[in-house]
Amino acid sequence: MQHVVEASQVVKTFVKKRPVNELVRHPFRRAERVRALRGVDLRVRAGEIFGLLGPNGAGKTTLLKILSCLVLPDSGRAVIGGEDTVHEGRVKPKIGLVHSDERSFYWRLSGRENLRFFSHLYDVPRRKMGARIDELLRRVGMLEDADRRFADYSSGMKQRLAVARALLHDPPILLMDEPTRSLDPASAMSLRSFVREELNGRDGKTVLLATHNLHEAETLCDRVAILVRGKIRRIGTVDEVRRWDVDERRFRLEVDRWPPGFRGPCRVLSEEEGEGLRRVTIALDRDGRLDGVLRALLDSGSAVHACDRIEPDLEEAFSRILEEETEAEATP
Ligand SMILES: Nc1ncnc2c1ncn2[C@@H]1O[C@H](COP(=O)(O)OP(=O)(O)OP(=O)(O)O)[C@@H](O)[C@H]1O
Ligand SMILES: [Mg+2]
To answer: Is pTM, for the whole model, over 0.70?
Structure first.
């Protein structure tokens, strides 16, 4: 399997800027350091959509900046399409970066003028420029507003223009930093399907995106990594990460009554009453079988109306990792 994005043991420490008044009061005090990435290993395969998840400050943006040559790592290596990111000139044509910093656009220029300006920076051939810009504006749904000033755009429009800008030089790899952050639910959904169906499905682009939105990761990504405090804690397909360390099997049953003192091979996780039925969520005992539970229920005179398997979700996996982190921090 060909890997088009590779990070090996990437380490990055920032020195926190100190306010001037503090510098004056304590000129010799050492500046505080922030370890943003503490040895990150990551491989993204050609043609996949890969999600980078993690809480605030986990290091997602820093990693994307390193991969797009905006920041140099202190140590370790980042390689894009076979080129080390120290060779900026060779890496830049391969990547398109969609980041959430609107300041990188020219606010007094229109959307179209901005794209024209960036086309020059990305070496888009002059004779193709007009058609390319029009095509991208149409694809991101901005053709009608293309000649309005960037400053007058809504956050969602600015974000769509950022996607168009990243595609100007038709890069095979897209790095997206929280691409749906400022979008309303309908626009977020439409951007996700644009990424999945057109950019990835039709054009075959590899996408690495950072997101806080676990639902987005579940619906969009082939594989995900969970980054916490500069370290990757889980990596795999969404299903693998969801089921990581979860060996219990859970079911939601709808029964007309739950027998008091029920002794089936399971434990009850939650119970609720609704529409004349009891909805009971159970976890099977380690060696327990579902038919054992159902038989015990039927023998006790209950009628079973429905039984669904419940898969653990990413949110649960995420909370578990954060709990482990908190426990590790508390342990001396
Ligand atoms: N230029 C910088 N100078 C100092 N510290 C920085 C700088 N950039 C990032 N950091 C610190 O590095 C850590 C990782 O930041 P980063 O922005 O990569 O996190 P993130 O996962 O993208 O967070 P968020 O979800 O909030 O966007 C944070 O503690 C942040 O304060
Ligand atoms: Mg970030």
So the answer is: yes
C-alpha of residue 58 to centroid of ligand 1, in Å: 7
**Nearest alpha carbon to residue 181 among 155, 151, 217, 142:** 155
Q: Do 266 and 310 touch, CB atoms closer than 8 A?
A: no
Residue 16: DSSP 8-state:
P
Is 121's C-beta closer than 6 angstroms to any atom of ligand 1? no
**Integer CA distances (angstroms), 195 to 49, 71, 202, 212, in order:** 9, 26, 10, 17
Can you tell me which residue has the tokens 């380490």?
A: 11
Q: Cα–Cα distance between 249 and 286 in angstroms, integer?
A: 8
Rounded Cα–Cα distance for residues 3 and 280 (Å): 45
Q: pLDDT digits over 50-96, tens only? A: 999 999 999 999 999 999 999 999 999 999 999 999 998 999 999 99
| Atom number, ligand 1, closest to the C-alpha of residue 62 | 18
Q: Domains in the chain and their CATH numbers? A: 3-242 (3.40.50.300), 250-310 (no CATH)
Q: How far apart are CA 5 and CA 172, in angstroms?
A: 11
* 54 CA closest ligand 1 atom index: 21
Task: Examine the pLDDT at 209 and tell me if it is beyond 90.
Answer: yes
Which residue's CA is the nearest one to ligand 1's atom 7?
14
Average pLDDT over residues 143-156: 94
